[in-house]
């Protein structure tokens, strides 16, 4: 018997059997059973260790090995609580044992629980007891059925016939055992319910969590049903194998019923019922499954159901290989067909078979997609993706025909799910062209459909791609491995069809590419009429199909055919939207060419020629808004597509220059606002991409770069062509816009910088008018030209200042003014930051709002970069200026730089160094007055005027030593003429604008201090400079002088600010002397006896000057005191008298405090002259003034006694009337205040009287 088994086994089976025998040699095997009570994360197992798969139970059955090699080895075995002889029990008591099994199935423990579980709640102790009882019953049942398998394998013998033909009684029973087993197994299958017919509270056990430790009896009962249903099949299979596939008839059953029953028919019927049972469970679960979740929601109620499906697959396909029995798919197909057919009569059909499914088609797809992956599991329950899988394409083709049948009317929401399932099956099964044919017959008729699902909302409404790249990316997703479950929401059914088509096109069918077999069917559907019937959506679907085909099969052939098909469209019928879509399709094909490293010349020329024509129309269309919008839709499509090509191309070696034709020369002048912005953005992308790729190619092949060796040479030629097209078709417009009437777009500066760097990398292709040094020419055009908008210059230079290659290029050509001219541009950009602001009252806002945050940020960045230039760093270092300066706002940073320049110059020792520094500084400044001329001409805006006078004032003050040189004096004279002494200022009766006057008032001290220093230093123009200084003081002293000392003013007089600042003594003295001289000559001159206007204010100013300085100078006495004494003498206004008295007091006390006698001598001289001039006429007033002075300085007046006496006598002599008693009395009152000297003089006068 055993030899017979071995002889029938093939060598692979024998090897597998030996391996299995070695594995179980030392194991204490337990009866296998279904269990989902295990942790699937433990050891990565898919099924429990006691399962039929993981325990090797199935494998041993299929290999015809002992089902339980380590069990039932004793002479007796306990079954259902009784002891039995192991080798005889089944022969002698088969019916009785199966009766005990049926009794256990109806055990009161099951019944009591099932009946009362809804009415009561068990305590934990009761639950544990019930669990234990149920588990014990289940174990007894399983033990018996496993014993049956072992008994058949070990002890069942075919009937033996003796010579006399008489059998022993036991032998007769043994001979009848196979027939009895078939009958008992049939009775068992009849007595156990269908799974779906179990009470609902039993079926609810499927939902119990796997991690539970104590299970209710319902769980054990449910899983016992699964065990029995499976073990019946195992027993029948083992029986058939033991009897060498002889047919066993159930004789007693046949005699009673007249129905035929064999082991084979029972196996097939039970197997069919079991599959139907499992399908019914899936049907009950299906209503809860959404179409979008079909692939993620399996039909397994628990893991044991999944194992049962796998067991059926393994067993049925194993039996099918050795005989003509039906395979697994055949039984499943039959069951599913019954669901579809829904027979009108139930004759010869069980009630179960007539069960209806709400959507049998979708259900069939769902079940099929989840059963196919089960073929990946081997006999041990391990996942083996390389395992050969049996397909079921014939049935799926029938499903597909139903899904695409117009009469069936399958909705898109279901069709997506069906095709998702089909795509899943494609990944498991071999190639099948029939499904492509079926699907294409459906979709070619529905290309104009949107394939949307209404309840998905807006995300499902985007049917037409907005860019060529998005169009291509959508199609490329169809050509790569995808997460199929996510396709429902991300793709429509048409794109899922394309995914199926792409997957099949990638495979070969017996050495023949599928495309060869299918392309005729696809091409034939597109004829002239069909092409003209395509809507915009239809065209999108048309392109999607051929883009996918171009990716996976013959690209050039596909593109050529598409172009031919598009020629079927009549131009008059093509709307703007459809033409834009066609252009996007062209560019999508171009992107495929680029990705496949194919030359795009022919295809690029075709689309670029169309672009040229539309650009020409756009240029001549100015007033027709609708036509402009339509044209721009096409032009922007072209720009987007061309940009995507340049961004995608790895080496720009595929004739990309064909896309940059002269259409852009017509397009650019016609663009406005956002249109121009888009074109310039495209241009920047192309420039940056060209430079990046050219640099990479120039470096040569790098480590890890798989580029072909010939690429660099070919690429460089194409790079030259791209550069030439850019210069020829884009740069002329760029050049024309640098001096536009309004501030240009920042993109213009960015693009100009890109061209400059392109000229640096590929100088030979720059335009002829930029040669021979294109980089220098570009800098002169956009960076150093004083006529270019500062916004453009600052942004342009910010891109280039830090570029080391640019610096090296200027150094190599020996151009040393690069940094100086860049600093000059920065100087201008800061000065002109308010250039485009209005000059009216509306401009009076804070600086950031007026200038604009963007430009301020740009200037700040430019300032940061300027302070990194080597020349600037050197100046700051010599001037000990910290590097934190550039972190300030640009205006303050510029002032700090001006200070650093002046400080650096002052630190130089030799004449050549100073001369070079003067030349360099003048180069930094340039024509500074030209920069501010717009402010002066427009008299605004106020911020611009303030900035102008402040910055140039700082220039005059802090760089005064440089302006004092002969090289720089002409600039100084121009500054004075333009800013301080223009024609309008010279007209004293003409009011100046408030903004201008305010700016001058705030900054005038800077100019006065600087000019004062220059006057002291200059040796060639000293007289003229002093004259200028005097003129400035003369004109502005009166303009800023209030009408009276108590009148409100706009702030401190700028002359006071200039005289009160901390400047060196020579400067202060010169400025003070000049100021007082101008005041004396112009503001303290009496017209006859009439005092000058605003005399009190003039005197108050003088008093503030004297009080605000630390020292007392001789010039104060000479220039101020005579005029003040005269005011004190001739003016009776109390305010004038008081201020004049204060001035005299200050001077007298100042002479007393001063060291040496020079001041006193000078003071005495002034008083002496005052006495001589006015005593004769104003004797009483003179004596009164002297009385006041005597209180302050008696010695001073005492020294003047001889002069006074002589003047008295001269007056009397001149009058010719003898002694003037009144005068002498007044004089005596004065002398009475002069102590002894005064008494002596009185005595002398009296003696003269007595005589």
From TrEMBL:
Stored InterPro entries: MMS22-like, MMS22L_C, MMS22L_N
Predominant localisation class: nucleus
Taxonomic superkingdom: Eukaryota
Signal peptide from the UniProt entry: none
Residue stretches making up the MMS22-like C-terminal domain: 857-1234
Domain Protein MMS22-like N-terminal: 31-740
GO cellular component, one term: nuclear replication fork
Keywords associated with the record: Chromatin regulator, Chromosome, DNA damage, DNA repair, Nucleus
PANTHER family named among the record's database cross-references: PROTEIN MMS22-LIKE (PTHR28547)
Function recorded in the entry: Component of the MMS22L-TONSL complex, a complex that promotes homologous recombination-mediated repair of double-strand breaks (DSBs) at stalled or collapsed replication forks. The MMS22L-TONSL complex is required to maintain genome integrity during DNA replication. It mediates the assembly of RAD51 filaments on single-stranded DNA (ssDNA): the MMS22L-TONSL complex is recruited to DSBs following histone replacement by histone chaperones and eviction of the replication protein A complex (RPA/RP-A) from DSBs.
Recorded family membership: Belongs to the MMS22 family. MMS22L subfamily.
Protein name: Protein MMS22-like
Organism for this UniProt entry: Lonchura striata
Underlying gene: MMS22L
